Amino acid sequence: MGELTQRSRDRVTGALLAWGESRLRDLPWRRTQDPWVILVSEVMLQQTSVARVLPKFDAFIDRFPRPGDLAEAPLGDALMLWEGLGYPRRCRNLRDAAVVVQREHGGRVPDDIDALLALPGIGPYTARAILAFAFGRNVAVVDTNAARVLSRLVGEPMKLAVTQGLADDVVPEGRSWEWNQIMMDFGATLCTARAPACDRCPLSRLCAWGGDINRPDPAVATQGTSRPQPKFEGSDRQARGRALRAVAQQPLRDEEVFAAMNMIDDVDRAKRLLGQLLDEGLVVRVNGTVTLP
Ligand code: SF4
Questions:
Q1: Which of 27, 35, 75, 186 lies in the 20 to 30 Å Cα band around 204?
Q2: Ligand 1 contact via 207 beta carbon (within 6 Å)
Q3: Buried (b) or exposed (e) across 219-238, using 16+ Cβ within 10 A?
Q4: pTM of the entire structure?
């Protein structure tokens, strides 16, 4: 299960490094090894595409260049810069993480897996990404792209732990930064979910699946590969985003928030969503109005 021979591993590694070295996408978080900048980018990229993170990233880093800058700022300032990225709980968690980094680590992002995992909003994937991209540790970062590529190479669906074990096995010693970035770009641009370009793939001779339309794609049943996103139009997520955008302009009464959510005829749902935003600390009540914290 989930195995490649040593010879195959070496060939996969060599072919992918050769493919990727001249093709790596130029992204702002790839121009630095500053652990804080990389942490911010990884949190932004958790549920948001590169294309949507790019226009927001520089402004956020300019305003909060160090963990202490975010830790000391009102959450509302951060939420305003987060607008458009979605899933604003991540922004609150990021600020909570900045507070812990400032208080418990002297303002330096820790380089230890357990300390990273103890930060709010940092799971195993993000912790590994920080270790690989900021500290050059020899760990594999298995995002949805890497999981898809590996399952196709092996030719069978895999559970997360198996994928992670295989991924760790193929990281070339001392080159984890390039390797992990290349793996992600390879999956994002060539071995894509819907249209893998097997006819021009440098791994075609090593790949057990190889885009064979007569066999099910192993990536589909592999844990950690992307699933279709629920519809955004009409969703709670859309309504919460509208509410946050509206109160970022000015404090509003409850009814005005409901109107901003387009839910004047569905007050029960509007109240539930506003209650969630209040419970999560993403908005607060001040003098009978709702505003950013
Ligand atoms: S041959 Fe096709 S399925 Fe296999 S790694 Fe290359 S692009 Fe992906």
A1: 27
A2: yes
A3: beebebbeeeeeeeeeeebe
A4: 0.85
Tell me the per-residue pLDDT of 251-282, one tens digit each, with 9 for 90 and over: 999 999 999 999 988 999 999 999 999 999 99
Q: Which CATH number fits domain 34-135: 3.30.56.70, 3.40.120.10, 2.40.30.90, 1.10.340.30?
A: 1.10.340.30
Q: Which CATH architecture has domain 236-291?
A: Orthogonal Bundle (1.10)
Which of 150, 184, 190, 192 for mutating ligand 1's site (highest number of atoms within 8 Å of CB)?
190
Domain edges within the chain: 34-135, 236-291
Residue nearest to atom 8 of ligand 1 (CA): 191
Does residue 42 have an active-site annotation? yes
Q: Is the pLDDT of residue 1 over 50?
A: no
Say yes or no: CB of residue 198 within 6 Å of ligand 1: yes
Closest CA to 277 of 269, 38, 146, 100: 269
